[in-house]
Design goal:
This protein is an all-alpha fold. It folds into 3 domains: 83 residues, lambda repressor-like DNA-binding domains (434 Repressor (Amino-terminal Domain)); 117 residues, no CATH class; 144 residues, Serine Threonine Protein Phosphatase 5, Tetratricopeptide repeat. Helix 14 packs parallel to helix 16. The N and C termini lie far apart (55 Å).
């Protein structure tokens, strides 16, 4: 695996962004399959110092040492100057918005760079499931800046591809901002994702952005607006949505209907969402941001709708069947495990 390929790993990039040297050294060595001695040779340090850094018994306090890491480990340019920001700038910048307004100009874009950034974003999605998004935030913002600089140089299908990639980044940034309770920026980012999806002609992304908005409304206690928005997500582009994107919208409508006490409607929608989701069992067939919507996830979502409708025994059975397949997602596993235990308690009571 080349140095560039190593830096596609989300956890390695998160460790770099946070200047978490023990994790960075362990992760780099594991990916590269090298010893502390060899790592030290790459960065110009003796094995003993590398060992102390890796165990957290020494600290990096000099920028000259950071430079050794940059050069010796071939840290990508977009990461070279990243350091942990105690309070990130969560909102989209005016400059970024202006740059995107100049899309579809005639020129030549570096689509190889765009493809690379797309693969890295896929790694970030998975890493966010384990390490959270705060450390990755400055990296993804930097990647989005790179994309928006390419768009004015593109036209036709190339510009449309870049628009989708920008929208995927904006969606990720919205989700992380939401988790950090930055509600306004989260809405601003998801609005950008939806707009860029429209501009690039990507109905699945347009629907997904509306589905995310529906989720935000439901969490904030407005199920009527959530149901309305989820239905709009489903019909954002009639007969143009892939089954996975439609499944996500229909499931969100089911959850909103349950919150509106329309339980019959919610259960019918939940059945429909499950049937749509299992029509695309292979990850490669689904849009990149729906990598997680496997058949096991579809069963869990179906059980979650039953839980929302207070059908405790059905919910518990569904959670119990699918939960073992969620081992690689610790936060989601904990969420559904808690749901399972509560459903079992209520069913037996």
């Amino acid at each position: 695996m080349s140095g560039r390929e190593l830096w596609a790993d989300g956890r390695l990039r998160a460790a770099w962004a946070g200047r978490d040297w023990p994790t960075l050294i362990r992760r780099y060595r594991a990916l590269a399959g090298i010893s502390q001695q060899r790592f030290g040779e790459l960065v110009g340090m003796d094995q003993g110092y590398v060992s102390r850094l890796e165990r957290g018994r020494a600290r990096v306090t000099s920028e000259s040492v950071v430079t050794r890491f940059v050069e010796g480990l071939q840290v990508p340019n977009e990461l070279g100057g990243i350091r942990r920001d105690p309070e990130p700038d969560w909102a989209p910048s005016t400059e970024l918005r202006a740059r995107m307004a100049h899309a579809q100009a005639v020129g030549r874009a570096d689509l190889r760079t765009a493809d690379w950034i797309g693969r890295v974003l896929a790694e970030h999605r998975r890493a966010e499931d384990e390490v959270g998004g705060r450390d990755l935030w400055p990296i993804v913002r930097s990647q989005l800046d790179s994309i928006t600089q390419l768009i004015p140089l593109a036209h036709g299908e190339a510009a449309d591809r870049l628009m989708l990639l920008a929208a995927e980044h904006a969606h990720w940034l919205s989700w992380v901002a939401w988790q950090e309770q930055c509600w306004g920026p989260a809405l601003a980012w998801i609005d950008l994702a939806q707009g860029w999806g429209v501009d690039g002609g990507h109905p699945d992304m347009v629907s997904w952005a509306q589905r995310v908005r529906a989720y935000y409304s439901l969490v904030h206690g407005d199920p009527v607006r959530a149901l309305r928005t989820a239905e709009a997500a489903r019909y954002a582009a009639p007969r143009s949505l892939c089954p996975a994107a439609e499944a996500a919208a229909v499931h969100q409508a089911a959850m909103a209907a349950a919150a509106c006490a329309e339980r019959g409607r919610a259960l019918r929608l939940a059945d429909e969402a499950h049937d749509l989701a299992v029509r695309m069992p292979d990850e490669a067939e689904r849009p990149g941001w729906l990598y997680w919507l496997s058949p096991a996830r579809a069963r869990l979502q179906h059980a979650d709708a039953a839980y929302a409708c207070r059908r405790w025994a059905d919910a518990a059975a569904g959670f119990r069947t699918a939960l073992p397949e969620l081992a690689g997602y610790p936060r989601d596993h904990a969420y559904y495990r808690a749901r399972l235990e509560d459903a079992e308690r209520r069913a037996s009571g």
